[in-house]
Amino acid sequence: MTRVALVPGCLALLPEYASLDDPVEELRAACLAAVAWLGEEVRVVAGAQGTRVASALLAAVGSAPVSGAEAAYLIVGNGSARRSEKAPGHLDPRAAEFDEMLGRSLATPDADALGGLDRALAAELWADVDPIAVSADLLRGVDTVAIDYDADPYGVRYWVARWAPRA
Amino acid sequence: MLRLGRHEFGDDEALMMAIVNRTPDSFFDKGATWAEDAAFERVRLVASQGAEIVDIGGIKAAPGAEIDAAEEKARVVDFVARVREEFPELVISVDTWRAEVGDAVCAAGADLINDAWGGADPELVDVAAAHGAAIVCTHTGGVTPRTRPYRIEYDDVVRDAIDSTLGYAQRALDAGVAKDSIVIDPAHDFGKNTFHSLEITRRLGEMVETGWPVLVSLSNKDFVGETLDQPVGERLLGTLAATSVCALAGARIYRVHQVPETRQTVDMVWTIAGRRRPKRAIRGLQ
């Protein structure tokens, strides 16, 4: 068993989209701390854009993605982008309940619930959960170290979470 | 790096040089800051607006009453000392062509001599060198200070401006002015008709390609007024359009009356050109 972390696939974390004033300063700090905590050997579970975000975060802490059997895991995923009228996907009233369930399942962690996420509903809610669902088994036999970030500053629900093998 | 007296700037920075007239008769403000306290309030305002440089002038550019060196010094030297004292973070430029005045203002704390008349006084470069000050080398087509252009023509006005300002820059170097303390200025409307100033604007990139930092002084000038048929008080939009063209070409210093408007214009163009990041971009990137 090994360490596991979750970060959101927020593109504002990429260096090519940097601003003079960082709009995701707190999120970035939490992501970098979590990725650094994983150690130097990290496997990435993410879609195409999420992989870019993971690579950028790993590079920022001096690591790089690997495929070694002993490596830690970095999962890139997030909740709904339809949480308010100003959200990228506008308001979907189902988003709040979906994200609450997802947030509870991550915090527990509840591997069965995460593995059984309604991915069709998630797609309708613009929630990027496939990397979380396919890696749910990684969250068996672990304890939640911390939910380092839990907020939706721009209408998208982000979590930064860390899990470690049960002592 | 660009070194202006006591101050240093990176090569990716665009700088606002705010005009501060200690004159009773300059064309744009018509003497609004003639009184010392009014001029000082102007310095305070432009400093709060983020100008890096103030350009203090004691003689208007256009023809008018003769102002001798003693009177020019009376208008600017003590004022420079007062600005130096209260605004140490500001670069102090003085708009003068006289070596005698340049010497006195540098002793009082000026960082930069803005010689708008293209080296009419050959000893000005020696003064800049002696004080470790920077200097602006302008192109005027060889006209006498405070005269208007009359039937001046060029085979190629941009070539003439480059040859002239680089010749001046070399004289400054030979006199001992530091290489990173020399700025060139094509001097819109100085020794130029409107067509010349428009061509200088259109081809400003050729001046930038020389590698010397380029200053542009476009603010509310007659080439803008004649192009758009607008009086002095109605030239801001035209000025900002010309500013955009010069910013895209890479001009580094903007001598201006309106600091916030010019700053936003230059920041926008500088960012389009990829030389500056957006202030805060999140749309579509959540």
From TrEMBL, chain A:
<protein>
    <submittedName>
        <fullName>Uncharacterized protein</fullName>
    </submittedName>
</protein>
UniProtKB/TrEMBL annotation, chain B:
<comment type="function">
    <text>Catalyzes the condensation of para-aminobenzoate (pABA) with 6-hydroxymethyl-7,8-dihydropterin diphosphate (DHPt-PP) to form 7,8-dihydropteroate (H2Pte), the immediate precursor of folate derivatives.</text>
</comment>
<dbReference type="Pfam" id="PF00809">
    <property type="entry name" value="Pterin_bind"/>
</dbReference>
<keyword id="KW-0808">Transferase</keyword>
<keyword id="KW-0460">Magnesium</keyword>
<comment type="similarity">
    <text>Belongs to the DHPS family.</text>
</comment>
<comment type="pathway">
    <text>Cofactor biosynthesis; tetrahydrofolate biosynthesis; 7,8-dihydrofolate from 2-amino-4-hydroxy-6-hydroxymethyl-7,8-dihydropteridine diphosphate and 4-aminobenzoate: step 1/2.</text>
</comment>
<comment type="function">
    <text>Has very low affinity for the DHPS substrate 6-hydroxymethyl-7,8-dihydropterin-pyrophosphate, but can bind the inhibitor dapsone. Seems to lack dihydropteroate synthase activity, and does probably not function in folate metabolism.</text>
</comment>
<keyword id="KW-0479">Metal-binding</keyword>
<dbReference type="InterPro" id="IPR006390">
    <property type="entry name" value="DHP_synth_dom"/>
</dbReference>
<dbReference type="GO" id="GO:0005829">
    <property type="term" value="C:cytosol"/>
</dbReference>
<comment type="subunit">
    <text>Homodimer.</text>
</comment>
<dbReference type="GO" id="GO:0046872">
    <property type="term" value="F:metal ion binding"/>
</dbReference>
<dbReference type="GO" id="GO:0046656">
    <property type="term" value="P:folic acid biosynthetic process"/>
</dbReference>
<dbReference type="GO" id="GO:0004156">
    <property type="term" value="F:dihydropteroate synthase activity"/>
</dbReference>
<dbReference type="InterPro" id="IPR011005">
    <property type="entry name" value="Dihydropteroate_synth-like_sf"/>
</dbReference>
<protein>
    <recommendedName>
        <fullName>Dihydropteroate synthase</fullName>
        <ecNumber>2.5.1.15</ecNumber>
    </recommendedName>
</protein>
<dbReference type="InterPro" id="IPR000489">
    <property type="entry name" value="Pterin-binding_dom"/>
</dbReference>
<keyword id="KW-0289">Folate biosynthesis</keyword>
<dbReference type="GO" id="GO:0046654">
    <property type="term" value="P:tetrahydrofolate biosynthetic process"/>
</dbReference>
<dbReference type="InterPro" id="IPR045031">
    <property type="entry name" value="DHP_synth-like"/>
</dbReference>
<feature type="domain" description="Pterin-binding">
    <location>
        <begin position="14"/>
        <end position="267"/>
    </location>
</feature>
